[in-house]
Amino acid sequence: MSYVGRFAPSPSGPLHEGSLVAALASYLDARAHHGRWLLRIEDVDKPRAVPGADRCIMDQLRALGMHWDGPVIWQSQRDAAYETALQQLAEQGRVYPCGCTRREIADSALQRHGQLPEGERPYAGTCRNGLPPGRVPRAWRLRVPEGTERFDDRWLGPQEQDVSQAIGDFVLRRADGLWAYQLAVVVDDAAQGVTDVVRGQDLLGSTARQRVLARLLGVPAPRVMHVPLVYDERGLKLSKQNGAPALDLSRPLDTLQAAWRQLGLPALPARDLAAFWPQATAHWARRFGERRLDARA
Ligand code: GLU
After folding, report:
1. Which of 46, 203, 210, 239 best tests ligand 1's pocket when mutated (most atoms within 8 Å of CB)?
2. Can you give the pLDDT at residue 115?
3. How do residues 230-278 score in pLDDT, each as one tens digit?
4. Which ligand 1 atom is the nearest neighbour of the CA of 185?
5. Has 237 been annotated as catalytic?
6. Which CATH architecture describes the domain 4-77+230-288?
7. Are 146 and 166 in contact (CB under 8 A)?
8. Residue 123 has what pLDDT?
9. Distance CA 41, CA 12 (A)
10. Catalytic-labelled residue, pool 114, 240, 244, 256
11. Does domain 80-173 sit in CATH 3.30.70.20?
12. What lines the ligand 1 site, CB under 6 Å?
């Protein structure tokens, strides 16, 4: 079986303890399956990209002994591929212009978090059958087909969501002209031949949308595994927005062991990085290895 995994950080700052947990799980899953592990810099939201954060993330990964395979891809250089995908969807009659303002729909929040934030409602379809008089096209939305999307998450088990009900017609190209994360990630995973996505549980709520898009674009949807998030003492998800500090790389082994424990896995006896990686990979392979994958595929 040929396995292709990826780590796809947004370069809005250095990696912190939370993002390392996702990186570690994705790396180990790829290595445990003798697969490739790709690095993709998700700077699709160009204004949010912090200059130099991409290089910093790469340095952090190297310092931890996490080496990626093949060339790095930057989403900011992939406009043509996203345009082609949008055209393909448009030819199926699946794309329409939306004139609703950001305040009306609060789609930026929907964009950033996998799920609708508390109190938000799915897009009501205001512009679905044509722009209301006086409206100008701002964003481009996907006409989402009805029906329940079902998939098996390798960490969380069976999942389902009816995107048309829970989310509604979602944005593919934003009013500011930027490509939506949902479209970019599906196009790139397909272009890079990604078979397995391992990422944080904050993105679980994006998976059904991404599967809908993959089907409409005629590309395979990767298997998924959504690993636990890390919370700070206030109970907030560790994130750059919440002020999570950059990883402490003065003692890389301790940093990795802490991320490993966050996954609920038993302590490893490794005394240095050189011992940590084979021990962690072997443990991961026993726990989440090939046979389990095959059984569920
Ligand atoms: N770029 C996203 C993030 O940093 C991850 C996207 C993904 O793994 O699909 O949260």
Report:
1. 203
2. 61
3. 888 888 888 877 778 889 899 999 999 999 999 999 999 999 999 999 9
4. 9
5. no
6. 3-Layer(aba) Sandwich (3.40)
7. no
8. 87
9. 10
10. 240
11. no
12. 8-10, 42, 185, 199, 203
